[in-house]
Design goal:
139 residues; alpha+beta; globular; Pnp Oxidase, Chain A; homodimer; 4 helices; 40% strand
């Protein structure tokens, strides 16, 4: 792992949406806005196993997330690394992402892996090992 | 051309930054936050010819831009299509992008193509022919 500094971890924790990019089968970038949470130096995104972003991540083993602030000058950075699809022990991270979406103080009660499997929910995890396009982060 | 509706054109005009994605030589997505302006169904971004995003666009002929609003529920969409690097007649679009960056009412006086070439400025143009990952756009 590498690339994440305390300042970048704080930046990640202060925000909650980013643009996920994966590579399509044709080698083209595929982008969508997603909510995320940070777990140490991994970024966790709740998605469904049948979504193209999940299939891309499984097939290529790589993804990146671009996060920017909401106001000018829009501090931003892109976090990239090996990506995998998790289906075990995902109750708590899924609940944390749901908390971000609902914008509430406490996460909802975690669902079991079995219950999440029934609704096709998985976690796309990026192990950040590269940070690029860092802008307006101060110092 | 296809994919852009009046509602999506209005959404693009109401915002000014997005996350540009191109494919690296290794086939990995490369993302960075950029200012843009819309010209009919093209999205125009000011960059430098030596930037990796410009090299990617020139080599692959493709790029996408993910644009999101700044407040929950973060309406967003991804605009993709053939991409090219322009070096002629770029004074006006470059001035329009600079206006977005400076957040002022009027664009600065346009520079000549020659003056822009001296500072390596080019326009990366995406001809939008695909819109995906549209979220929270009302309707």
């Amino acid at each position: 792992m590498g690339g994440l500094t305390d300042q970048l971890r704080e930046f990640l924790d202060a925000h909650r949406v980013g643009v996920l990019a994966t590579a399509s089968k044709a080698g083209k970038p595929r982008q969508s806005v997603v909510y995320y949470v940070r777990d140490a130096d991994r970024l966790l995104i709740s998605t469904m196993s049948e979504r193209l972003k999940a299939k891309d991540a499984r097939r290529t083993g790589w993804a990146s997330l671009s996060v920017r602030a909401d106001e000018q000058p829009y501090p931003s950075a892109t976090f990239s690394g090996p990506a995998e699809i998790l289906t075990e022990n995902i109750g708590q991270p899924t609940a944390r992402v749901m908390q971000q979406i609902a914008d509430v103080d406490e996460p909802p009660d975690p669902l079991s892996d079995e219950a999440l499997a029934e609704i096709d929910r998985v976690i796309l995890a990026i192990s950040v090992d590269r940070v690029s396009a860092v802008t307006h982060m101060g110092e």
